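Customer ticket, subject: "Can you confirm the structure for ISXO2-like transposase domain-containing protein?"

Message body: Hello, I'm evaluating your service for our small team and ran a test protein. I'd like someone to confirm that this is what the system normally returns, since I don't have a reference to compare against.
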Amino acid sequence: MNENSYSHLTVNYSVNFVDLHTGTHTKNVERMWLEVRKLVPRFGRKKTHYEGYLSECLFIMRQGSQDKVPCLLEVGRRIVPGATA
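Agent reply: Thanks for trying us out. I re-ran your input and got the following:
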């Protein structure tokens, strides 16, 4: 990740749950991390597969309750030129 692609902000929870000057809070990040931890295998996971685990989590989160098969087929068509389903 490029160091210019994000800002690292902090919140002093002993004072407030939201930084009064910047509006910063960590609820969204903590919630997202909770969802990722639910989807990543607890046992047998490998560091070399972390990117794949996170990609799968993003796919599942973005698709929500929609049928994932048509979307996977579309992704496959984009990756493999000339593929038809």
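A couple of notes from the result: The two ends are 35 Å apart (CA to CA). The longest helix spans residues 50-63. Feel free to reply with more questions.
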